[in-house]
Design a protein that fits this description.
The chain has one domain. 65% of the residues lie in helices and 0% in strands. Helix 5 crosses helix 10, helix 5 packs across helix 13 and helix 16 packs across helix 17. The N and C termini lie far apart (58 Å).
Length: 393
């Protein structure tokens, strides 16, 4: 075996070991809170802890305070210029990123039987609006101007996400319905790494599949900011590839190789499609939602998850992707092309925001800098709040 093959084999062994690794810092906090019966009180305090500049709340148990202090800074290797590059990319193409996240990344998550089973055990199969809302807010906070520093709001989002994952691990492993020895730890670090690759590598691939132009530099910076996020989520740094090309290779070996059919994945996908069909008035155009999913994910994944197949709508969406490519190529020269391209994405995200909470007022918060940029460009998917309230709250 060559030195290169040995290196790859060692890396795969290390990634496989992540299947049995949770998040010791967050897991210890949850175990302490459950033992003390203080989870509800802590939830109430953390609900008000939203911005990077807020001091750690005083009215928290000491283990929670220590955890928040220990997890509040990005890794030393985080490059502000690369993070700024990802922000500029999202300013230009955030609505298209949202489209691919909605139609592709969420479905690809459901193509993984083990994480889908976790969702089943947490009784969230029938709550696609909640999962989409949480995912959308996570990405919006990530893509603010300075997500990890002053003025941002992403660090508390990550910290609370780690605690939520730890709570799920705690209760599922004690439910008697999960075999850790056979299936690994629920929401393990391997699952976290897989989700990171789906939301970064696969989003870039999906955008290009529907005809959105993404430069190599934009793709590298977008992956980079997710890599920084992975470090803050507790994923070991040496498990995350340094370059996009290496990440694409790991995505093929780790994530796509894990895809398969499952009853939970099929039901999750069915509920997701139903949610998005509510965006389209009447029923005449319902088939376009499934066709869009089939344009973004692979045919095998779509078949495994029983995404409906309409040849007429698939041809229509494929033709639309070709039009998108033409519009992208003319975007710098054509104001009409720019308007059509951006409005298509903003209408989708705007509709998503309105339906994520089953018709209730949106709880999504668009960072103020993104809102200002999108409003200036005429593509903000959510209207300014009455009275100009900060960040839409």
């Amino acid at each position: 075996m060559s030195e290169t093959q040995n290196t790859k084999a060692t890396a795969l062994t290390a990634v496989e070991a992540l299947k049995y690794q949770g998040d010791p810092l967050a897991d210890a906090v949850i175990a302490d809170l459950v033992a003390g019966g203080t989870t509800s009180a802590v939830n109430e305090v953390l609900a008000r802890f939203r911005d990077n500049d807020q001091p750690v709340p005083e009215d928290l148990p000491e283990p929670v305070r220590r955890y928040l202090v220990a997890t509040d800074a990005p890794p030393d290797w985080a490059d502000p210029d690369r993070i700024a590059g990802a922000y500029e990319f999202f300013v230009d193409d955030g609505v298209h990123v949202a489209s691919v996240l909605s139609f592709g990344a969420m479905v690809n998550c459901y193509a993984q039987p083990r994480p889908s089973r976790v969702l089943s055990l947490t009784h969230r199969l029938n709550q696609p609006h909640r999962r989409l809302s949480e995912t959308s807010q996570f990405v919006l906070n990530l893509m603010g101007r300075n997500p990890f520093g002053s003025g941002g709001s992403f660090v508390p989002t990550i910290q609370k996400t780690r605690l939520i994952h730890a709570a799920v691990r705690h209760f599922i492993t004690r439910s008697g319905e999960w075999d850790v020895e056979a299936d690994g730890v629920p929401l393990c670090q391997q699952d976290m790494l897989g989700a990171l690759l789906i939301f970064s590598v696969q989003v870039i691939d999906g955008m290009r599949r529907i005809g959105i132009s993404v430069t190599d530099r934009e793709a590298e910076d977008y992956y980079y900011v997710w890599r920084v996020t992975g470090a803050l989520l507790g994923i070991p740094a040496d498990a995350m590839p340094e370059t996009l090309a290496e990440a694409q290779a790991l995505n093929a070996r780790l994530v796509e190789a894990s895809y398969g059919p499952s009853a939970e994945g099929i039901e999750l996908t069915r509920n997701l499609l139903r949610l998005y069909e509510n965006l389209v008035p009447g029923r005449a155009f319902d088939g376009v939602v499934a066709a869009m999913v089939r344009q973004v994910v692979t045919p095998q994944v779509a078949d495994w998850l029983e995404v409906p197949h309409s040849r007429a709508w698939v041809r229509t969406v494929a033709a639309g992707a070709r039009v998108m490519r033409l519009l992208e190529r003319s975007e710098d020269r054509s104001r009409v092309a720019t308007t059509v391209l951006d409005k298509a994405g903003s209408l989708l995200l705007g509709g998503s925001v309105r339906t994520l909470t089953d018709g209730q007022p949106t709880t999504l918060t668009i960072p103020s800098d993104l809102r200002e940029k999108w409003l200036a460009a005429g593509v903000c998917p959510v209207a300014p709040p009455p009275g100009g309230a900060r960040d839409g709250r």
